[in-house]
Amino acid sequence: LLALAIIFCSFSTQDLQSEQTVGLFKNSQESYNGYTLFSPMNGFNTYLIDNCGEQVHKWETGKLPAMSAYLMPNGYLIRPAKTLNNNFSEGGSGGLIQIYDWDGKLIWEYSVSSETECQHHDVAPMPNGNILVISWEKHNKADADSLGKVIMGDEFWSEKIVEIKPNFKDGTGERVWEWRVLDHSVQNTNLELSTYGDITSPELVNINYTTKPLSKVDWLHFNSIDYNEKLDQILISNHTFGEVWVIDHSTTTLEAKGHKGGKSGKGGDLLYRWGNPASYGHGTAEDQILSRQHGAAWIKNNIEKEGMISIYNNHASKDINIDYSVVEVINPPLNKDNTYTFTLPSYEPKEANWKYPSTPDTNFYSKNLSNAQFLSNGNALICNGPSGTLIELDHKDSVVWKYVNPVGFNGVIIKQGEMASSNEVFRVQRYDVDYPAFAGKDLTPTGYIEPGSDFTCKLYDNPDTGVDENTSDGIGIISKNKVLNITSNLEITNISIYNLLGNKLLDKSLKSNRSLIDVIGFNYGLYFVKISFANGKVKSYKTIIE
């Protein structure tokens, strides 16, 4: 499952010529047909392309992104932009949230940029139309002293999450919810301060923990945010701590300041954290799994239970002199009441439930940026941010689609045949062809973004897997860390699991070549897996669940 064999150097393909430098390199029948959205980091436009790499839509914004972009079901584009706030000069700085309609008209914008705050890196659109925003907040030396935080210099930056409700009638926005890290901080050096407490509590944030020099004013450096509607929880990537955090969104703003309230009953305290137990006093640097990670997101397709998380772990090596990245998938210990079980010394799992590469590979590396998105058919779309390379992989570890961003510095389009440079992409998203935003829209391809491309390309319809029904089903069933990993050459329509007594323990309908199944509640032992395929065949398999 989730085999992400990603090759960012050259690979042979019969689809296109070897002199390709930008644009489409590969499209195959195994690729999931859809429309891919990306905002080149050094360009002023946001592009929507089809699987042949042809532009089907473009939003001209006149501003650099900060740094993600999302297409809403109503056809609106949510895109944060840079304001060049000199008070916050770290990478990822933005400050302006903009919404464009399908025709490219700016219909709303809201500033989160001042001397004391600045939006950065990412936002999370919500189903109710509101927007969750990551924002730095600046604090002075007096604030640090009152909290018991040790700093060098006159200031430090913390983080907050702000939920903004757009008002399209008058162009304003209402801040309807807020969560601040400092409301949940703890230190163990000054008994006289209100923040004094147990720094080994996983629900609180050690205000004096860092993996950076004390001179670094950007203490936490959040770089991604995702919202899970079913759980009503927020997922955050904390770059400095080497962790992902989950907090409760069901609180009021007042409850979010404290330690009680919300569905969890824990207020704004951390519900779950993973990646570096040393950040809350458990273990050492050797126990740290995540480092410089980006793109933390809930996996919303082909999972049996809510709560699985994918992470692009940029610097997975514990040796600072060796560079390689790993895409990790974890299955947090989520209870039926949507709380998380903490087992000393750290939250489960002890290691990723799945990762790629399974062994270190220095050819697989993104020093920063980057993300992974799991598509409706189970394929994985990967963004190697620094190189602007977008790759899709099927369940057999094969590269089935590859595209290189042709937009370079200052928005200049790189010609086919010229070497790509300054073509970084922060994040990529692909949308199904029947995504509501596209209803009634003209998606006629208008040609390649880059000049000089003259190849032909065929689009393939979903859900055709491109597999001959007379071939082997090629089933793969792997059990590891309480996740059952099922892949197949043929499209699967149903999975049922039985124990040795013949009792059905799980029944799941799907339309995919792969699936992740949470088996945390299953005892160790032998089970029968009954799989129905799209060609009408039904087969049973034996497997041992760890």
Provide a descriptive summary of the structure in words.
- This protein has 546 residues and is an all-beta fold.
- The protein is 2% helix and 38% strand.
- It is built from two helices and 32 strands.
- The chain has helices spanning 141-147, 253-257, and strands at 23-27, 34-40, 45-49, 55-60, 70-71, 77-82, 95-100, 106-111, 117-125, 131-140, 155-167, 172-180, 185-186, 205-206, 222-228, 233-238, 243-248, 272-274, 294-298, 309-313, 326-330, 354-356, 371-374, 380-384, 389-393, 399-404, 425-432, 476-480, 483-498, 504-518, 525-533, 538-545.
- The chain has a five-stranded antiparallel β-sheet with strand order 1-26-25-24-23, with no helix packed on it.
- The longest helix is centred in the first third of the chain and has 7 residues, at 141-147.
- The chain is globular and about 70 Å long.
- The two termini are 16 Å apart.
- 48% of the residues are buried.
